[in-house]
Amino acid sequence: MATPINMSAFTKPAPVKAPEADWQSLDVDTLSPDLQQLYFAYRQASDHANTQRKAFEAAMQSKLELPVHLTLACGYRFGKLSVAIVPKTKPKSSHAALSLADLIRRVP
Question: Where do the H-state alpha helices sit in 1-108?
């Protein structure tokens, strides 16, 4: 006689949806001097990296002959270079900055 198969072992549970993040700008002037120093050091390194990224992407773009309504998008996640040809879009609007005290009050 065959052993019955437990089919419940083959069903996947429903994925749990993570709550959406509520991103806010933080007012850097509300940080302590040591945090400000670390943030500004990060920004300096980030600005240098962005300059290099823009130079690389401009060189890549110059190799393509895209219509004016399209552009090359580059992604750098997980240590890999990903590219896509996408429509040119307008930048999104930004929100007002949040103070560190306001951020602390939002912690559940």
Answer: 33-63, 100-105
